[in-house]
# Entry
Amino acid sequence: MSSARLTIDLTALADNWRALDAKTGVETAAVVKADAYGLGVEPAAKALAGAGARTFFVAVAEEGAAVRRAVGPGPMIGVFSGHMQGDTELLRDHDLVPMLNSGEQLLRHFEALPDHRFGIQLDSGMNRLGIEPVDWIALRDIALGKKPVLIMSHLACADEPDHRMNQRQLRNFKEITDGIQVPRSLAATGGLLLGPEYHFDLCRPGVGLYGGLPFAEARPVITVDLPVIQVRDVAAGETVGYGNTWTARRASRIATVSAGYADGLQRAIGGGIDAFANGQPCPMVGRVSMDLITVDVTDVQDIPDSLRILNGHQTVDDLAEAAGTIGYEILTSLGSRYTRDYVA
Ligand SMILES: *Cc1c(COP(=O)(O)O)cnc(C)c1O
# Structure
């Protein structure tokens, strides 16, 4: 078997949810959009429900159907994109709760599903999703008359605790929601870590559950093992890989492992990243190909059957930094080619 192996530790996932939950006195939801950040929404949602999560969020209604299958009736499943044209049956059939983002969505929802639960998403400054404060003034009474189950907004800079935008959005959110007798939510992972002012009635962490920054105390959730397909000796002065970007400075042994940028191990991942041979770090050398990566294993005594690229020491955020991106993008890019192992 030559496909790379992605191992997902569902106990670590559940522990991360519990650890975040323990940091607040309010309810903790679980954001499982994008197939639970690429890790598999059915097993992830089941494990999170097992840990105690009673509210889930997805980006679009189609994703909500899979969460409902996983967790069964009962838990609330919120949809950030709200009620789009064509969503009505999905929302109704799977009991999904749209977070309505505009006057148009409010109208659509009240017409199509007058007795169906909904939430409201307000824009507190990010200018991405949600009803603008000026429009909220006009829509507020109609919306509140229909009894939303949640009012939420989203922070643009919560991963930077000292960013002035956090305070500004907090102030805006309070201004447009204070006094309303509806549960409120502002914080994702970053906001939860900013402290109790940001917690309101519900926090909505995503990336921290999956072991990513800004939740630095997270337990690592995934390991990735790349089978060694071939090992060769190269003489000093020989080059390795596309573009001849790496030249051996000594007689070297090169292991070619099975995985590449088509598996989310981005071509932009530059120097400083190792693949581990039974815990011993070995530098990746040459370009990342679509399906293959070359690794300098000259100093390894016994070359194992596979090299580990993601582990508790080298994390998705390390890979992200090396590629000039964020852990979220590494996680959601891992793709479908891995053999996936879910361990409890
Ligand atoms: C993705 C998302 C979250 C979760 O964010 P993390 O940074 O992954 O914790 C919460 N709320 C909204 C609106 C989102 O889009």
About this structure: The two ends are 23 Å apart (CA to CA). The chain has two domains: 10-210, 222-343.
